[in-house]
């Protein structure tokens, strides 16, 4: 078979390991051919692709980013967009199937292409936010947590030196997994996540409790967190290609509010895209490689409209509908567990 690979949406550590796992399994086990679409769905819409051979993936699992490039292109838009045009492009170039590696937006688009046009697509879940349902963990998450934890460790020393309250904003559009894990690992005194709106008074109580014990407060907040009374997450950066608000900046709102109410000097740090960069962790390299290999097996099983996922320690195949129909929210029990450590 001739299989097209694409990486779409926000990049994350582990994408190259997926590509390597898929190509090696396809060539060794099935004598497949591979092409890589450049810059995600944009490469599909514009018929922009390159051949990938075994030599191209040598040593790739430890490399961050993606050799194929990425974008947030909507495959239903543009002159070459839509299932009819995409199928014609695939037929003209002898491409039998697409493995789409991406997050919520990418896999939702993949599902539509299957449902509305019968395109042969298999999905691989990619999101540092860990917000996709139907998989216990997605690759990139472990690395993002490690990066955030290292930043928290560094901010703690400067906070202690000046007796400041540090507000650390991490990624997490609709879910608080990065904030929860990095906050617990870094010993945060408060963790604020989208699933659990809080009042500024509650936050200030935790901050003042820390100061009363002679410590410098450290607050970790997910970018999608909302204070009680806010109708939506803070956004001032417009919309992405899928019509979703580009979030960020809640830390810049919280730090001045904390300082005004408590009199404690407060500073915010937005980690932003640093969480997406660098080499993947060992866990993410292994998970990504396994998912890439499983995706090729799913293609040969003609599991169109399906996604490979991690369940426990096993790789399984689930429907894209199940994966994109709901978000993987942080359960209240997990937050209550962490809340014991606040203040």
- N-end to C-end Cα span: 57 Å
Rounded average pLDDT: 94
Radius of gyration: 21 Å
Secondary-structure-based class equals alpha/beta
- Report the count of strand segments: 13
- CATH classification class of the largest domain: Alpha Beta
Instruction: Order the strands across the largest sheet as they lie in space.
Output: 3-2-1-4-5-12-13
What does the main sheet amount to?
A: 7 strands, mixed
| Order of SSEs | EHEHEHEHEHEHEHEEEHEHEEHH
Approximate strand percentage? 15-25%
CATH fold call of the largest domain: Rossmann fold
Number of domain modules: 2
Supply the CATH architecture of the largest domain. 3-Layer(aba) Sandwich
Query: Would you identify the regions where 5 or more consecutive residues have pLDDT less than 50?
Result: none
Report the helical percentage.
25-40%
Q: In DSSP terms, counting alpha (H) and pi (I) runs of 4 or more, how many helices?
A: 11
Cofactor: Mg(2+)
Family: Belongs to the phosphofructokinase type A (PFKA) family. Mixed-substrate PFK group III subfamily.
EC number: 2.7.1.11
Pfam families: PFK
Structural description of this entry:
The chain has 2 domains: 2-128 and 280-324, Rossmann fold; 141-276, 3-Layer(aba) Sandwich (Rossmann fold), CATH 3.40.50.460. 39% of the residues lie in helices and 19% in strands. The protein has 11 helices and 13 strands. The protein has helices spanning 15-30, 41-45, 83-92, 104-117, 141-162, 177-185, 200-212, 250-262, 282-300, 320-324, 332-339; strands at 2-7, 33-37, 49-52, 97-102, 121-125, 165-170, 190-192, 218-222, 235-239, 245-247, 266-270, 306-311, 314-319. The strands form 3 sheets. Strands 3-2-1-4-5-12-13 form a 7-stranded mixed sheet, sandwiched between helices. α1 (15-30) links the parallel β1 (2-7) and β2. α5 packs across α6 and α7 (200-212) packs across α8. The chain starts with a strand and ends with a helix. The mean pLDDT is 94.
